[in-house]
Amino acid sequence: MGKLFGSSGVRGLVNSALTPQLACKVGLAVATHAKAKKAVVARDTRVSGLMLEDALVAGLNAAGADVSLLGVVPTPALAYLTRGLRADVGFMLTASHNPPEYNGIKVFSGDTLSYTEQSQTALEQIITDNSFALADWRGIGKARSLNVGYAYVELLKQAAKLRKPWRVVVDAGCGATFHVAPAALNALGCKVTAVNAQPDGYFPARKSEPTAESLTSLAETVKALGADLGVAFDGDGDRVAFIDEEGVFVDFDRALAAYVAYTLKKRGGGKVVTTVEASMCVETMAERYGGKVVERTKVGDIYVSEAIKRHGAVFGGEPCGAWVHPRFHYCPDGPLSAVLLLQALENEGKSLREFIAEVPQYMTLRENIKCKNELKYKAVSKIEKTLTTAFGSSGKLSTVDGIRLALKNGWLLIRASGTEPLIRLTVEGESLKAAQDIMSKGTALVKANVGAA
Ligand code: MG
After folding, report:
1. Does domain 363-452 bear CATH number 3.30.310.50?
2. Three-state DSSP state, 165
3. Ligand 1 center to residue 26 CA distance, Å?
4. Given pLDDT bands bounded at 50, 70 and 90, which one contains residue 2?
């Protein structure tokens, strides 16, 4: 059996890699491993959600765990409420930003952190060995529905105090934020226009991953309505993307760096965490405001969250819109980030465009090259052997995640995707020309090795 758990729990094509049988086993394994008596389960809007939920709950009940069903809420709400309800474990049925035919199971512990690699390896072992601790028939757990999504909306309402009636266009992409995000912004006094705010597991309106391309319609709407900003989430609401008042998609790295700057300015310095993939503008802004990027982790929000906790950092995030606010909890939170960003704009007296303008604009380019799951890691380790020679560089090579080569005028990162059959290339250059040169050399090298892997 191949590896079941990736950087975001179990994820795969429904009824192929991810079946109800597997969901049931995950329920049994987690209850066995954590000796869990109390579990919380939520899902995003995917059509396979209820089917997998039933199977997961059967496994949990069979191992003696009682389950509270929260229905459709964002991933950060599930993490927050797992702690709030004093449960031993929380489950989110989601494939995040992946297409609708995928689904996944992400497991959270009671401290709002998702399961570490170590715990996931233990689960994998239990599943492989079929060593489930089934309950005596009298000890079988119960499941009940619990309507507590409002407690998460309350968290968002408490997180900011806005005086200005901000005109915000919210795009839930038919995903798990469809209700809570517009509700919270309304409650904060914003003038909200909600688009794609009907729950629909086919994601008919746009791709679930918020990108400049998938948000063109939102950008046009922001401009047409003369709104202050647009806010969009991925399928499960742990990522956020912004459109500025001119209808322009805000670069993920610069948004992250601008919020890093604001946080450090407000706190008088502090530690920040990001991943190997983020732009060097995060360091530039952190240092400008007396803070420090203390760690560049592997890609994957769990690594950022763990490092934030370990270092006592004030903020951290990934340049895909996954921002972690440790004051509240350790799960990346899209709606909370949107609310806190509005507060930041109001405190600074700036429009979104002005807020971002302070961040230097280095050139980041990203490309994905298809590579089968079973070959992708092998291909990357082959590239590692030839990378330095290919670039004729004596730059610093880091292997925290994939391979990252620092060059005189930028850097290059080549890594196998944790969740998809892809090799991801990220390049940053001081100028567009520098970035393009690095990227064309990099893609040629990857393509040669994908063919030969
Ligand atoms: Mg997500």
Report:
1. yes
2. coil
3. 20
4. low
